[in-house]
Amino acid sequence: MNAHSDAHAGNGHSSHILIPAPLGTVRQILLEPTALAEWNPAFLSVGGPSEALTGRRYPLVARGALRGHWEYVGIGETLVEGRWEVPGLAETNSWSLLPHGEGTHVTHSFTHRGALAALLRPAFAGVADLRLDRLSGRAARRALAQVS
């Protein structure tokens, strides 16, 4: 269940993990915008409707009480792409899902831009792993609850 980081040039980050939950469960969690803060350490809260819609801006509060927005850029069966922005930092991210036995192999990648992104670059080391570990725990608990 441990995530494995891959080095990226510049300010990009990537990691992957095998999550012990079906692809549909993992995808459902990624498409719950108002619950993202429950497992994504970058967010304190995400508001708006609970339905995931591309192009819709969901208000968010990020770590450091920075206010901005989250939006889905693309929603596919095996790829979810998003973007969030606060003053000085914009992140573009992707979640690639691949069925693997009874689980799901997930690759998470993200890049940052902006003045704050450059300043905080060292703080983002390991963030892809942390996000994947938290997503994995949430998905495993949900999959177990669905079986019970």
Tell me what the structure shows.
- The chain has 148 residues and is an alpha+beta fold.
- It has a single domain, classed as START domain (Alpha-D-Glucose-1,6-Bisphosphate, Chain A, domain 4), CATH 3.30.530.
- Helix content is 24%, strand content 42%.
- The chain contains three helices and eight strands.
- It has an eight-stranded antiparallel β-sheet with strand order 1-2-8-7-6-5-4-3.
- Strand 1 (4-7) and strand 2 (12-19) form a beta hairpin.
- Helix 1 crosses helix 3 (127-147).
- It is globular and about 45 Å long.
- It starts with a strand and ends with a helix.
- The model has no long low-confidence stretch (mean pLDDT 90).
Which CATH class is shown?
A: Alpha Beta
Q: In percent terms, what proportion of residues is strand?
A: 35-45%
Distance between the termini: 21 Å
- Average pLDDT taken over every residue: 90
Classification by helices and strands: alpha+beta
Domains (count): 1
Q: In one word, what is the shape? A: globular
Task: Quickly give the CATH architecture.
Answer: 2-Layer Sandwich
Oligomer: single chain
Overall radius of gyration: 15 Å
* The CATH H-level homologous superfamily: START domain
How many helices? The count is 3
Biggest sheet details: 8 strands, antiparallel
Uncertain spans? none
Order of neighbouring strands in the sheet with most strands: 1-2-8-7-6-5-4-3
**Percent in helix:** 10-25%
Protein name: SRPBCC family protein
Organism: Streptomyces dioscori
Pfam family, one: Polyketide_cyc2
